[in-house]
Amino acid sequence: MPSTTRHTLNRQRQRQNQTQRAEQTTTEAPVTAVVAEPARKTRPRPEPRTTDKAARSTTPVLAALVLLTLLLGGFAGWAHARAHALTGTAAAQNTALTDAARTSDVKGRAEKAVNALFSYDYANPKTAEKAAATLLTGKAVEQHRTLLAPVLAQAQQQKTVVTTTVTDSAVERIDGDRARVLVYADQSSTSTAAKAKDAAANYAGAMLAVDLVQRDGHWLVSAIDTFSS
Q1: CB 177 within 8 A of CB 214
Q2: In a domain, 53, yes or no
Q3: Is pLDDT of 118 > 60?
Q4: How many domains is the chain partitioned into structurally?
């Protein structure tokens, strides 16, 4: 066989071999192409919804906060007005705001006076008479007589014992030798008469405002204002 022909055949064989290898490579090689997936639409995350229960539980809290704010605002206004009032002449003269020792003394004197003036024992009337003579002055004398008249009218017959005990008091003002004290007292009334032995003791509360005036170092009750308890 001529060399030209043999060379031609060799080239044809090489082309066939290359074609076969290419086909094998195309058939056996794994597919690496990636099919693009359609883009997913991102949905916005829903906002947390407040349940009806949560809304109901929040409403009273908000209302309470609003009320507290109003109360604090009102108190602040009152405190400011009160502080401003204390700079006035009348407040500056009120020793009850500045002199604790004097205020305590007046408070104690008023309590003792009320205890003595509104207690009565049929067996020892002199004690009540002495209290009235030494602790009262001015219009308080007649006021006290009027207040005690119903007790005195039947004290001996009913053998009445009245006991008054101050349970609380507060000094409203002290201005020089004058003072005013608010008093709350408990009163008990019992009768030891034979006809009334089965009767139960009577208890009541009394609210008073007593004006006092200082005379020769002693505080005397000069006026008595009564309030219903």
Answers
A1: yes
A2: no
A3: yes
A4: 1
